[in-house]
């Protein structure tokens, strides 16, 4: 029997803040105890971690990552080994990645391929969503089987015609199947057909620089697709609907209206939309390509709406959409044609720190920080109780966090396998010191001590907000 005591820290969860010791036994949280009471009761531990002056928080849950994702003739630069190690450095102890169905192929083939990529490689625990790229009768039947084995969330794209795009009829059929089986439907909500028209017009007019990526992916086309997805979900019988990477204030308004009507509609935004604006895509030369992602970065007024949505719970989750492509050799595939720039940004390592910076700046409170980064994504995707909290019986995924430490985000110091940082030179307050995954140290006093293969596949249940 292995036992660990974390003593002297301020325990912060989505529900509470308390001065307490955390008792860990065989990889799970055994108890939270008043300071010193464990020793007084004779509770002995082989390992004692001193958290004096630090927060003791649940490990982060990043519900939106793309390790080794194929896109635009290349693939995301982080492997499961490098990406999950970087996640651990940033205080995230569970990632939910996207397995990809290829057109004409079975869901099972895509899921098996992602299991093969991740098996024996991950430093922290992981789960999978399933991208539906080709909705057919046999695929709908497969959705039932995958839901039963712990992959109960399916992503459909209203963007990228000819690649991942599904039309309204396909989306409706998938939503109907999800409603029958207790699965969650995730949507990339942009009107891809209209965006392709605008992109072709921009190229024909000689507008080829990275900034035009954002100009053609208009906020109204994000809002229109969000509205359409909500109405399709209503027609389908109301499966939980989760809108990914929301960036536009008009889309937030559609989500807020649906939630006010009592519909099971949920949404995430990402750090890039909270801390960066479209000015980054207008950087001199080709530098703006570093910031090309979809949905795109938008102007300050959209950013303000996202922060309001996080405070009012119209947006419930902050995930990263971590999909890194190196500037040299990948992003530069789009020189002279913004439509060929691989879409995606690195971020899995910085989410917890950036959100803590929002606490420092007074945008959100400490418990809301943990709600957005840990508890809410765990509840949304059927992991809460095991992940996302510090409570008896939960996995001992624990982070010792120094709220006073300052550091500068930079490609020279980050651990993601990408040659630039989207936040280069940004100074933040707060830093991960030690990370435990199921009670085992992965980062110890700012030293990586984890290993590939420690991380396990975690089957998930249905959305706990609607259970």
Write a structural description.
It is a single chain. By secondary structure, the chain is of the alpha/beta class. The protein contains 13 helices and 20 strands. The protein has helices at residues 37-40, 80-89, 107-118, 137-148, 168-181, 192-204, 211-216, 219-235, 249-260, 271-275, 300-312, 351-360, 366-380; strands at 3-7, 10-12, 17-25, 28-34, 47-50, 55-58, 60-65, 70-71, 74-75, 92-100, 125-131, 153-157, 184-188, 241-243, 265-269, 317-318, 398-408, 427-437, 440-444, 447-448. Strands 1, 2, 3, 4, 5, 6, 17, 18, 19 and 20 form a 10-stranded mixed β-sheet that branches. It has an 8-stranded parallel β-sheet with strand order 7-10-11-12-13-14-15-16. A two-stranded antiparallel sheet has the order 8-9. Strand 11 (125-131), helix 4 and strand 12 (153-157) form a beta-alpha-beta unit. Helix 4 (137-148) packs parallel to helix 5 (168-181). 55% of the residues are buried.
Over the alpha carbons, how many angstroms does the gyration radius reach? Answer: 21 Å
Oligomer: single chain
* Poorly predicted runs of 5 or more residues: none
Shape: globular
The first-to-last residue Cα distance is 35 Å
Average residue-wise pLDDT: 96
The number of helical elements comes to 13
Strand tally, please?
Answer: 20
Q: What is the helix content?
A: 25-40%
Structural class: alpha/beta
Strands, helices and their partners?
Blueprint: E1 3-7, E2 10-12, E3 17-25, E4 28-34, H1 37-40, E5 47-50, E6 55-58, E7 60-65, E8 70-71, E9 74-75, H2 80-89, E10 92-100, H3 107-118, E11 125-131, H4 137-148, E12 153-157, H5 168-181, E13 184-188, H6 192-204, H7 211-216, H8 219-235, E14 241-243, H9 249-260, E15 265-269, H10 271-275, H11 300-312, E16 317-318, H12 351-360, H13 366-380, E17 398-408, E18 427-437, E19 440-444, E20 447-448
Helix pairs in contact: 4-5, 5-8, 8-9, 9-11
């Amino acid at each position: 029997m292995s036992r660990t005591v974390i003593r002297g820290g301020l325990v912060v969860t989505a529900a509470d803040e308390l001065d307490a010791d955390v008792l860990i036994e065989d990889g799970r949280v055994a108890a939270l105890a008043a300071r010193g009471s464990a020793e007084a009761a004779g509770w002995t531990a082989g390992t004692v971690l001193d958290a004096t002056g630090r927060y003791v928080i649940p490990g982060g849950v990043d519900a939106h990552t793309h390790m080794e994702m194929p896109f635009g003739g290349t693939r995301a630069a982080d492997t499961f080994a490098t990406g999950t190690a970087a996640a651990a450095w940033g205080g995230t102890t569970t990632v939910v990645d996207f397995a990809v169905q290829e057109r004409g192929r079975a869901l099972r083939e895509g899921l098996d391929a992602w299991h093969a990529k991740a098996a024996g490689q991950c430093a922290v625990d992981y789960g999978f969503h399933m991208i539906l790229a080709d909705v057919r009768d046999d695929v709908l039947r497969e959705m039932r089987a995958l839901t039963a084995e712990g992959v109960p969330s399916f992503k459909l794209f209203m963007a990228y015609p000819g690649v991942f795009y599904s039309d309204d009829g396909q989306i409706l059929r998938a939503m109907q199947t999800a409603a029958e089986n207790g699965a969650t439907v995730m949507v990339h909500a942009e009107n891809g057909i209209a965006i392709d028209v605008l992109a072709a017009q921009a190229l024909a007019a000689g507008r080829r620089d990275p900034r035009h990526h954002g100009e053609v992916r208009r906020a109204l086309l994000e809002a229109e697709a969000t509205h359409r997805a909500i109405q399709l979900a209503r027609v389908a019988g109301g499966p939980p609907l989760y809108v990914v990477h929301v960036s536009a204030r008009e889309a937030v308004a559609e989500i807020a209206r649906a939630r006010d009507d009592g519909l099971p509609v949920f949404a995430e935004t990402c750090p890039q939309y909270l801390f960066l604006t479209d000015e980054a895509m207008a950087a001199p030369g080709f530098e703006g390509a570093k910031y090309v992602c979809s949905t795109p970065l938008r102007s300050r007024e959209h950013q303000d709406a996202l922060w309001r949505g996080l405070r009012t719970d119209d947006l419930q989750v902050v995930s990263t959409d971590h999909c890194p492509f190196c500037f040299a050799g990948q992003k530069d595939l789009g020189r002279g044609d913004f439509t060929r720039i691989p879409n995606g940004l690195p971020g899995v390592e910085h989410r917890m720190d950036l959100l803590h910076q929002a606490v420092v700046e007074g945008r959100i409170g400490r418990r809301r920080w943990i709600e957005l980064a840990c508890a809410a994504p765990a509840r949304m995707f059927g992991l809460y109780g095991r992940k996302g909290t510090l409570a008896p019986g939960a996995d001992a995924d624990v982070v010792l966090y120094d709220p006073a430490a300052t550091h500068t985000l930079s490609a020279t110091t980050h651990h993601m396998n990408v040659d630039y940082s989207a936040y280069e030179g940004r100074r933040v307050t707060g830093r991960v010191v030690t990370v435990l995954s199921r009670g085992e140290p992965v980062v110890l006093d700012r030293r990586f001590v984890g290993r590939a293969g420690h991380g396990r596949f975690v089957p998930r249940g249905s959305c706990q907000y609607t259970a």
